[in-house]
Design goal:
Blueprint lengths: L2 E2 L2 E2 L6 H4 L8 H11 L12 H14 L3 H18 L2 H8 L13 H4 L15
Length: about 130
């Protein structure tokens, strides 16, 4: 099981499908990295040699921001928006969609499970 920058890649998957397990590396960047490292994209992760793994690691370290650094940068950007009082920061703080989506219906992913509103008890007539 190859380990790149502290992340274990699934050994049975092709390297083009295994590399996006790194946070910050998507399908498109993965193909660019493999082309630069001159590694066949159809090769299984378990079949990579140490030399190929080191080439891929060197390219990623040189050209990309991934894992902890990227997560930290994203959270700092959100914190900055909240601190300056921007509309997008307000939406992040409230847990609502920040990019103009509707919230009357849908938006369940951001808003969470639907909250049930209990009806007020009615007066019982005697």
């Amino acid at each position: 099981m190859p380990r790149i920058l502290g992340v274990d890649l699934p050994k049975e998957k092709r390297i083009e499908a295994a590399l996006p397990y790194l946070y910050g590396i998507g399908r498109k960047n993965c193909l660019k990295i493999l082309a630069q490292a001159q590694v066949d994209k159809d090769k299984r992760a378990k079949d990579l040699s140490e030399e190929e793994v080191s080439k891929i690691t060197a390219i990623i370290q040189r050209d990309y921001r991934i894992e902890g650094d990227l997560r930290r940068e994203v959270s700092q950007n959100i914190k900055r928006l909240i601190d300056i009082g921007a509309y997008r920061g307000y939406r992040h703080k409230r847990g609502l969609p920040a990019r103009g989506q509707r919230t009357k219906t849908n938006a369940r992913t951001r808003k969470g499970k639907k909250k049930i509103i209990m009806a007020a008890p009615t007066a019982v007539a005697k």
